[in-house]
Amino acid sequence: MRVLFVNGCIRGQESRTLRLCRAAIEQMKETLEDVTVEELVLDQEDILPLNSRTLAQRHELEEKGQFDHPMFRFGRQFKEADLILVGAPYWEYQFPALLRCYLEQISVGGLTFVYGEDGRPHGMCKANKLFYITTAGGPILDRNCGFDYIKTLCGNMLGFTDIDYVAAECLDVWGVNVEEKLQEAEEALRGKIMSWR
Ligand SMILES: Cc1cc2nc3c(=O)[nH]c(=O)nc-3n(C[C@H](O)[C@H](O)[C@H](O)COP(=O)(O)O)c2cc1C
Fold this sequence. Notes:
By secondary structure, the chain is an alpha/beta fold. The chain is built from six helices and seven strands. The protein has a single domain (2-194), classed as Flavodoxin domain (Rossmann fold).
């Protein structure tokens, strides 16, 4: 079981989201068989938004089917994983822009999805399960724009059928017991992962 951990926790070792992701990985190793984890630390990669030049280059390569080009390395890695874990803090009701740029890089026609004769996108990825972990300074309420977007993109376009998430909320609210909130989220995510057995 090849787990791809897309680490969008910009604050690195200080990140509470990263702490939850580490707990999730530990639980995956306990629950699932032969787990190997590939961690992609977005903050350490050269990931930029597409611009006119890179988009034109990408179209040309897509048309020729040259998906061995380095430009598609993130897409190839995503496509080959058996399970995707995404960790990202709740920023501006969503997640860090770096994660959005990454999602742009992996959403490649002919590599991770293809439009069928029915006019709809069909996923071409090996995995069908994606687990999303976030932490928020305040309450998320019905403004879960980051997870909603991930569900739309990965569910509708990339073909994932099993997309779930866990959040620890209100971590920056004065007087909140942060440790307790994190432990609750950890328990919740461990419970979810155990149910995958
Ligand atoms: C740039 C930035 C934007 C943020 N935007 C929000 C927000 O829209 N809503 C919210 O509740 N918290 C927001 N926060 C607070 C974080 O969600 C919160 O501190 C979170 O736990 C950070 O995760 P981390 O410890 O993994 O870095 C923001 C924090 C930063 C640095």
